[in-house]
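Reference record:
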Amino acid sequence: MMDWIDAPLRRILAIEGLPGWLVSGMPGLWAMIKLVLALVLTWFVSRLVGRGLRALGRRRMGPGESFEGSSWDLGASLVRFFLLVLAAPLILALAGLDVGPFLNAHALGVVTAFAIVAAGIVAARWIATSIRSFGKRARQNNRADDTLFNFVAAMTRYGVVTLAVILALQQLGFPAGSLIAVVGAAGLAIALALQDTLRAVAAGVLLAVFRPFRLGDWVAIAGTEGEVADMTPFHTTLIPVDHRAVIIPNDKAWSDPITNFSREPMRRLDLYFDISYEDDTRRAMEVVREALASLPETRRKEDIWVGVHALNAWSVTLRARPWTDRTGIPERKSACILAVKTAFENSGVTIPYPRQVEYQLEYPQGPTRETS
C-alpha cells in the first residue's frame, strides 16, 4: 500500500555497513514516524475544516444569534470527529496493520453514519427554528411568552443531535445495549467533570420554568443592565445600550439578584433639582409639578409627587417622582429634566451652582531698614 512512502526506508537499508541493531529496528521506527506524521496531518486537516465551517456559520447566522453552542458550532466539532474516524484506517495502515477486512465490513456503515449525523444536524436546526418561529407568532398573536419556546428549541436541538450520533455509532457496529451502557457511564463521568456546566443547565431549566424575565425585557443581572436577547440551556445573552453582547452563565443569572425593569407596565422616575435658598420653595415645587404634568411622557399626573429632599450648603434639593411607561426610560427622563429646566427659566427660579469666596488680607508694610 503506497510503496512510495517506504522508499526512504529502502534507501536507508540499502546502505552497506549499517549496524545490525539499526537494520533490525529501523522498520519499527519508520512505522512510528509514519504514524506520528499521519496523526499530525489528520489533526491539522480536521482543524482547518472545523475552522472553515465555523467561519461560514458565523457569516450565515444573524447578528443577534449566539454562535457558541449553535448547530454550526456543534456541526464543526462533529465533522472534525468523523474526519478523524475516516482517517483511522489510513493511520492504522501506515502503522503496518491490515485494515482491509475492516474496510470491507464497515465502509458502508461509515458512510451511512456520516449521512445520519449530517441529516441529524440539519433536522435539529430545522426543528429548533420552527419552534422559535412558533413562539414568536404566539407572542405576536396572543401575547404569549416565547422564552420557554426558545429554551425548548435549544434542548430539542441537542437531543436530536445526540440521537443522530447514537444511531450513527450503531451503523459502525456498536451494539445498542453496550452503547447505552457506555453513554450512561460517559454521562456520569461528564457530569462529575462538568459540574459547573450542568449547574448552568439546571439553572437554565429553572429560569425557563419560573421566568423571572422574558425575551425583550430590560433587566440587570450580575452587574450588567440590558435587554434579554437570547436564552439557551447554558447562558443568557443581554444587549446593553451600547449594543454589546454580554453572555452570562445561567447559574450566575439564577444565583445573583435579578432586577426586571419591564415586569410592571409603568415605572416611577426619581428626579432631583437644586434651587437657591432665596427662591420660594413651595412655588418652585409647584413649577416642577406643573412642568411634569404637561408632558405626554408622564402618566397618572395626579400622583406626581414633589417634595424637599435635602438642604445643602449652597442649594435646596427638590425630589420629583413622576409615573411613566416602562419603555424608553432614558428618553422620557431626559424630556422631564428639560421641561423642568425650561420651566425654571420661564418662572424665574434660580438654579444655583457652587461658589467659592476668597478673602485677601493686605498688611501695611513697615519702614524699610537702611543698610550701610
In short: The first strand starts at residue 218 and ends at 221.
